[in-house]
């Protein structure tokens, strides 16, 4: 389980996170939802130890965050960070050299799942294809948890559907996923838990299934209540 307890963050004098607390379980998809600037990316970076936070505590299966976190957690940022001159297959080799937990058979499977051409150059890729390469690289690491920052942002409906479909395959398996997204429609049926952020705080943390069963509401219904209020 990833446990985030009472973390706060300021950029200069601006408070971005205010005692944020929630958990994300292994084997579940937890969706972090908030309007632009709500602090979603900052939370993912804090989990990876990429940005310092004040106070609070972050634990991965009971352990504090250390530089070895990369063996346990794969972070897929909101854009592909590989050098643009590289071909996809060179990016794969780069990952294999850099990460001891690179899983080549899974990478090959993801290449064909997303119908990627390994000879394509990174800087020639469309936005949707770059998003798929980004996911292919991040999901090919043997990590218990995967953090995905806006994997659907700015890409067409067919690419979004293809990306969403990976969540129902063994390529995600029983990993714990934290995903930030605005494109909730594409994955609403796959989400286990929702964490709604508002004003730097967790406004509500709920099980999508419980809200469906007990309140007869969809995740989008709850979002409308919160953000249109
Ligand atoms: N390095 C930084 N320096 C100063 N302010 C920052 C920095 N990074 C983020 N911020 C500010 O912190 C706030 C939260 O940013 P963050 O990127 O975490 O939000 P987000 O919820 O992921 O937003 P979006 O949905 O637009 O991606 C924003 O107001 C942003 O401008």
Automatic annotation (TrEMBL):
GO molecular function: ATP binding; ATP hydrolysis activity
Residues in ABC transporter domain copies: 2-224
Protein name: ABC transporter ATP-binding protein
Keyword entries, A-Z: ATP-binding, Nucleotide-binding, Transport
Keyword Coiled coil: no
SMART domains the record matches: AAA
Pfam family membership, one: ABC_tran
Domain of life of the organism encoding this protein: Bacteria
């Amino acid at each position: 389980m990833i446990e985030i307890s009472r973390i706060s963050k300021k950029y200069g004098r601006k408070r971005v996170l205010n005692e944020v607390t929630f958990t994300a379980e292994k084997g579940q998809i937890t969706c972090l939802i908030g309007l632009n600037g709500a602090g979603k990316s900052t939370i993912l970076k804090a989990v990876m130890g990429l940005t310092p936070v004040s106070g609070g505590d972050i634990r991965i299966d009971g352990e504090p965050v250390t530089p070895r976190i990369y063996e346990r957690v794969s972070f897929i940022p909101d854009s592909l960070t590989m050098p643009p001159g590289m071909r996809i297959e060179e990016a794969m080799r780069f990952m294999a050299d850099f990460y001891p937990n690179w899983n080549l058979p899974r990478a090959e499977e993801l290449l064909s799942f997303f119908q990627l051409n390994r000879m394509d150059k990174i800087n020639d890729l469309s936005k949707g294809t770059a998003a798929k390469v980004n996911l292919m690289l991040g999901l090919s690491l043997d990590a218990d948890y995967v953090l995905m920052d806006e994997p659907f942002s700015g890409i067409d409906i067919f690419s979004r559907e293809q990306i969403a479909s990976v969540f129902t395959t063994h390529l995600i398996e029983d990993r714990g996923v934290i995903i930030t997204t605005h494109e909730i429609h594409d994955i609403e049926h796959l989400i286990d838990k929702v964490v709604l952020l508002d004003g730097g705080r967790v406004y509500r943390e709920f099980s999508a299934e419980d809200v469906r069963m007990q309140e007869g509401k969809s995740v989008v219904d709850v979002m409308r209540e919160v953000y249109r209020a």
